[in-house]
Amino acid sequence: MTDIKAIHDWIDAHAEEAIRDLQELVRQPSISAQGIGLRECADIVLRQMHVDGLDAHLHELDGGPPIIVGHMTTPRSNKTMLCYSHYDVQPPEPIEAWSHGGPWSGAIVDGVLYGRGSTDNKSGILAFNKAAKAFLAVRGELPVNLKFIIEGEEEIGSIHLGPWVEKNPQLLEADGMHCLDGPVDTATRLPDVDLGLKSVLFVELVAKGANADIHSLNFPLLPSPAWDIVRALNTIMDDKRRILIEGWNDGIYQLDADDREELEEKTRRVDLQAMKDEWGIEQFALGRDGVDVHYARTYEPTANIQGLISGYTGKGMKTIVPNEARVKMDFRLIPNMDPSTAVQKLKAHLAKHGFGHIEVHARTNAEPPYKISVRESMAQAVIKAATDVWGKVPIVNGVSAEGTILRHVWIPCVLTGFANPGANMHAPDENVVVADYIRGIKYAASIMEEFGKG
């Protein structure tokens, strides 16, 4: 039986094929927020998997783009691993901010491949696929039973995936699940290994006033939606970043000894100054430092304002009282916080403070937060694989940013990845370092190998 080095050597020898396939995927727009190119991209993924000798089938979603599902078995292991990835990408705007041929070029410049989706998450799709192909080519069999699910709406919250999973849970049942949608740590350049998910609750608050924008001479007589929104926001969070909604933190996850040790270990190994330098800031909010930085980022619920929209924002002035104001927010919920309950608490809070007239539009299908133990076999397989491929133990996090599946089929799940610092995910000039992409394929192969042993 060949060892993992023979698999890695095969991946190196077939790197050009992996690069060409990634360029083909990147050159196909697949923007879920705008409904652009999704079926075309799914067709490319399906064809590539078939060329690579992998089982794959399209499944239609009611109202959404198709998903690709596969299942391959092996006599070598009684364990099954689910490989999750997504083929949709974020909108590329502003287009003019892109270089190297624009968002769909797939151009390689100085060893870096540019294009929307190059990191998030088309290289992740191919890392799974090419790793599986390597085992089939070298050994003639896989080290573990594999299931694949590749969806086309992750970037907008997997809004049509849940009902399909609920009807087809047997297609996804597995002993462990992971996705390659994460970065390496900025300072250590080692993979982040995330053992859970902070749920993201998207909310839009809407305040309305007169039936049109009115001359501001009449401000004393008119409702002011913009001021209503500002005043309402001030009741939600204080200047110490504490969320003031009654009962918001009831029953939230309490850290155990392993969690605290992970925070201490990360503090010892991560250069916080490198994070500040990457973000262009002199200090962290509230002057945080040391363990408190990692605790806050990992386990602290948040109430973020994404954007405020009201009135006139063009050149010069326009003397109006806007008739509407909106704010888009995302609340990060940690394990044991229920998204639906959180929405009800927010509505009750606004009513209590005199803002019951403000409309609350919330995504009701927010995925639930979750947390697994570092002792889970899926976690141990990823940590061991990262250690073997990078030569050092990776950075292990408590929770991070696929929860839709876990709402219906519970599987111990780990998020990790190989995205280079400066990959510009969700931003212009998104990219992946080609050498890191090839290493990512080896990482996927090593995870398969280690999980199959377990």
Tag the structure with descriptive keywords:
six-stranded mixed β-sheet, 2 domains, four-stranded antiparallel β-sheet, alpha+beta, Alpha-Beta Plaits, single chain, 454 residues
Written description of the protein model:
With 454 residues, the chain is of the alpha+beta class. The chain has two domains: 278 residues, Zn peptidases (Aminopeptidase), CATH 3.40.630; 116 residues, Alpha-Beta Plaits, CATH 3.30.70. The strands form six sheets. Strands 1-2-6-3-7-18 form a six-stranded mixed beta sheet. A four-stranded antiparallel beta sheet has the order 12-14-10-15. The longest helix is centred in the last third of the chain and has 20 residues. The model has no long low-confidence stretch (mean pLDDT 93).
Can you tell me the CATH class of the largest domain?
Answer: Alpha Beta
Low-confidence stretches: none
Structural class: alpha+beta
CATH superfamily placement of the largest domain = Zn peptidases
Averaging pLDDT over every residue, what do you get?
A: 93
- Could you tell me how far the N terminus lies from the C terminus, measured between alpha carbons in angstroms? 17 Å
Write out the strand line-up for the largest beta sheet, numbering strands in chain order.
Answer: 1-2-6-3-7-18
Which sheet architecture does the biggest sheet show? 6 strands, mixed
Instruction: Return the CATH architecture of the largest domain.
Output: 3-Layer(aba) Sandwich
DSSP summary: helix tally: 13
Tell me, briefly, the overall form. Answer: globular
Assembly category: single chain
Question: How many discrete structural domains?
Answer: 2
